[in-house]
């Protein structure tokens, strides 16, 4: 048997090679960016600023972890920014004026709302074969309008002190909210890399028809991935309220784009089947370091937006070259 046929018969090996190349590349870029800002951005390397970066990337990391599941099966979710507002105001109302006892119920409520919206997105996409970006674009408006209608466009302030205290707490020098994001990333990594469901997620993104012919219901797999993404939004809503002590119906604008950017920069393919949670985490860190460093250098908001957009474009171009390189390496092995 030729080496080419062996490589082609080993899609799992090819995927691992591609992921390692992607994660190594984004890791090198992150280190290089950190070195640059250490040299040119005042106070970038201070312990307080490092903690600030961790806190700042928490929400995007949580959202991006959920988005990774959706993108791996070839989908996209544009509703997460609006959905985080809906989850926050409903959960915030449940906690408003209450004590610590109201927090578990509010967390469960936020998770259920997020997962339910994810189910609707996935079910409509699969049942009527509608592109997911169209369905989730509609959900974007539904969730935003529902959040504003639910509170009368008012912001909720009276949240339990124990929740807001957690938002400012640290664990061994690491912000507690960032520890939550790391825990979620670790769980997602385990599911995708060590379980049958994770292998089916990758296989569905790579070759949905082959998975279907092997007896698996690819539609169910996709719906579950959308529900996971929605549940992550529910967690992000609770973390947002813990950090800032408010629940606003206008929060989350543009969050979906940041989450998608983190996943793509982390090496995921928008056509599905390729990507990893580690890459997503590194992508979120790179975006956070970039934003923080440019801010410390005095770069304006408009200029930071331009730079971030340019980085995303470069990441997509480099990913195309990385994909070709990994294919050549697999064929040559």
UniProtKB/TrEMBL annotation:
The record's section on Pfam families has: BPD_transp_2
Mode of membrane association: Multi-pass membrane protein
Q: What is its main location?
A: membrane
Entries under InterPro entries matching the protein: ABC_transp_permease (IPR001851)
Signal peptide per UniProt: none
For the keyword Transmembrane, the answer is: yes
Q: Does the keyword Membrane apply?
A: yes
- Which superkingdom, per the lineage? Bacteria
Parts of the chain that traverse the membrane: 20-41, 62-91, 103-123, 130-147, 167-192, 220-242, 254-270, 277-296, 302-321
Q: Which keywords annotate this record?
A: Cell membrane, Membrane, Transmembrane, Transmembrane helix
Q: Where in the cell is it found?
A: Cell membrane
| Alphabetical list of CDD domains matching this protein | TM_PBP1_transp_AraH_like
According to UniProt, the name of this protein is ABC transporter permease
Organism, scientific name: Nonomuraea antimicrobica
């Amino acid at each position: 048997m030729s080496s080419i046929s062996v490589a082609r018969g080993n899609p799992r090996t090819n995927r691992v090679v591609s992921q390692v190349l992607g994660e190594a590349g984004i890791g090198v870029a992150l280190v290089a960016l950190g070195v640059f800002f250490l040299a040119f951005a005042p106070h970038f390397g201070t312990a307080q600023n490092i903690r600030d970066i961790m806190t700042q990337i928490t929400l995007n990391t949580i959202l991006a972890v959920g988005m990774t599941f959706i993108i791996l099966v070839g989908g996209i979710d544009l509703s997460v920014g609006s959905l985080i507002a809906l989850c926050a105001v409903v959960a915030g109302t449940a906690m408003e004026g209450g004590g610590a006892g109201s927090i578990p119920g509010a967390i469960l409520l936020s998770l259920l709302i997020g997962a339910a919206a994810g189910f609707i997105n996935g079910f409509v996409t699969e049942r009527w074969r509608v592109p997911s970006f169209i369905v989730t674009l509609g959900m974007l408006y539904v969730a935003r309008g529902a959040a504003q209608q639910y509170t009368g466009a008012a912001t909720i302030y009276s949240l339990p002190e124990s929740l807001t205290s957690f938002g400012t707490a640290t664990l061994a020098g690491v912000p507690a909210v960032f520890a939550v994001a790391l825990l979620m990333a670790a769980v997602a990594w385990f599911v995708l890399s060590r379980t049958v469901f994770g292998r089916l997620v990758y296989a569905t993104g790579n070759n949905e028809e082959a998975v279907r012919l092997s007896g698996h219901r690819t539609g169910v797999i996709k719906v579950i991935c959308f529900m996971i993404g929605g549940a992550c939004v529910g967690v992000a809503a609770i973390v947002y309220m813990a950090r800032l002590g408010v629940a606003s119906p206008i929060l989350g604008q543009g969050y979906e784009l940041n989450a998608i950017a983190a996943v793509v920069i982390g090496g995921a393919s928008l056509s599905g089947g390729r990507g990893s949670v580690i890459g997503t985490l590194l992508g979120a860190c790179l975006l956070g370091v970039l934003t923080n460093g440019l801010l410390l250098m005095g770069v304006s908001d408009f200029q930071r937006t331009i730079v971030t957009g340019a980085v995303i474009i470069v990441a997509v171009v480099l990913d195309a070259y990385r994909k070709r390189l990994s294919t050549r390496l697999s064929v040559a092995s």
